[in-house]
TrEMBL record:
GO CC annotation terms, alphabetical: cytoplasm
Xref: CDD domains: AAT_like
Requisite cofactors: pyridoxal 5'-phosphate
UniProt KW keywords: Aminotransferase, Pyridoxal phosphate, Transferase
Protein family (similarity comment): Belongs to the class-I pyridoxal-phosphate-dependent aminotransferase family.
UniProt keyword Membrane, yes or no: no
Protein's name in the database: Aminotransferase
Pfam families: Aminotran_1_2
Keyword Transferase belongs to the record: yes
Gene3D superfamilies reported for this sequence: Aspartate Aminotransferase, domain 1, Type I PLP-dependent aspartate aminotransferase-like (Major domain)
Molecular function as annotated in GO: kynurenine-oxoglutarate transaminase activity; pyridoxal phosphate binding
Domain Aminotransferase class I/classII large: 28-377
Length: 381
């Protein structure tokens, strides 16, 4: 056997794959992995077919088709009062995770420190480790998962190269407020720290709250990469389509890596998305669409033994099961899947030292029938 010196010796199969496989094995409702179980818009699918029929079957330009970059920058600048330029400040990517990996690849050197907030999306840490970066974790705590900005200030050093934020936040469903972003802007002033702002759920936000994009704050926008996901926005996670925004100088470095990472993303899908985005209602209607699902799900489990604070964004709802059992969240999630036929995600796997707050994450991007069946199960526990 060849002696393999793994760069990621502690990384195993993701919890999303583990729980989805367990759900399949035990024929359980899968509210674990974050994907809708309903179809995307037939119009959008037809537009992909039209793109193929119209000859968009060879490589797209490396940064992405100009028509798509133009409509995205128009959308972003309109929503947030920003000034992104379609030729220099945006790159179309093969999903937001590819964008995140490419940003880290382009900027993190051995010994650089990267501040992340846990529970954190599980792609951040392995990407940082691959390039020799040092992870500086700040643990958030249920039920509100708010950030202590004094703690953040205490963790910034001369080695801090990057801070990664995620709003709306996966897995907690919380959001950063305007005051949060102003605190962050103040902390980053007069530094060379890069901000990676993971905003893949930007259009899934509830109760008339506003998404506080890094693009809204000049002191953040000048140093920020913003990542976004068409898979999350338009119920097409299998397409792996996203994009990344940043000032010209930062984006130039991003593209140096991107061109050798994937070079370019699906051309007919870029054609389709450029056409579909011409109707703003296709994304502006999403808060109402998903809030209806959130409210339906929560109304169905209000008499259960689970406790909750309604998610402010994303299509995930965290449920506190501490009144039910003292089991670890991993053990309880496994038992729910095997015995009660419903799969969720134990949040401790995203925490520092697997801190267990006795909460599970459920995805409510499901049909009403699926949510009703899930609620019936939860109410019986």
């Amino acid at each position: 056997m060849q002696n393999i010196n793994s760069k990621l010796p502690e990384v195993s199969t993701t919890i999303f794959t583990v729980m989805s496989q367990l759900a399949h094995k035990h024929n359980a409702l899968n509210l674990s992995q974050g994907f809708p179980n309903f179809e995307a818009s037939p119009e959008l699918i037809d537009l992909v077919t039209r793109g193929m029929q119209n000859g968009y079957n060879q490589y797209a330009p490396m940064p992405g088709s100009l028509s798509l970059r133009e409509i995205i920058t128009k959308k972003t600048n309109s929503l947030y009062g920003s000034h992104y330029h379609p030729e220099t400040d945006i790159t179309i990517t093969s999903g937001a995770t590819q964008a995140i990996f490419t940003i880290i690849s382009a900027f993190i050197h051995p010994g650089d420190e990267v501040i992340i907030f846990k529970p954190a999306y599980d792609s951040y840490e392995p990407s940082i480790k691959l390039y020799g970066g040092t992870i500086v974790p700040i643990q958030l705590t249920a039920p509100d998962f708010s950030i202590d900005w004094q703690e953040v200030a205490s963790k910034i050093t001369s080695k801090t190269k990057m801070i990664i934020i995620n709003t709306p936040h996966n897995p907690s469903g919380s959001i950063l407020s305007k005051e949060d972003m102003l605190q962050l802007e103040k902390l980053m002033k007069n530094t060379d720290i890069i901000l990676l702002s993971d905003e893949v759920y930007e259009h899934i936000i509830f109760d008339d709250q506003k998404h506080q994009s890094a693009a809204l704050f000049p002191g953040l926008a000048e140093r920020a990469f913003i990542t976004a996901s068409f898979g999350k926005t338009f119920h097409t996670t299998g397409w792996k389509m996203g994009y990344c925004l940043a000032p010209k100088e930062l984006m130039a470095e991003f593209r140096k890596v991107h061109q050798f990472n994937v070079f370019s993303s699906s051309h007919p899908m870029q054609y389709a998305l450029a056409e579909y985005l011409k109707v703003p209602e296709h994304y502006l209607s999403l808060p109402g669409f998903y809030q209806q699902k959130r409210d339906f799900f929560l109304s169905m489990i209000k008499n259960s033994r689970f406790k909750f604070i309604p998610a402010s964004g994303t299509y995930f709802q965290v449920l506190d099961y501490s009144a039910i059992t003292d089991e670890s969240d991993i053990a309880f999630a496994e038992r729910l899947t095997k015995e009660h036929k419903i799969a969720s995600i134990p949040v401790s796997v995203f925490n520092l030292n697997q801190k267990d707050d006795k909460v599970l994450r459920f995805c409510f991007a499901k049909t009403e029938d699926t949510l009703k069946r899930a609620a019936e199960i939860l109410c019986e526990i």
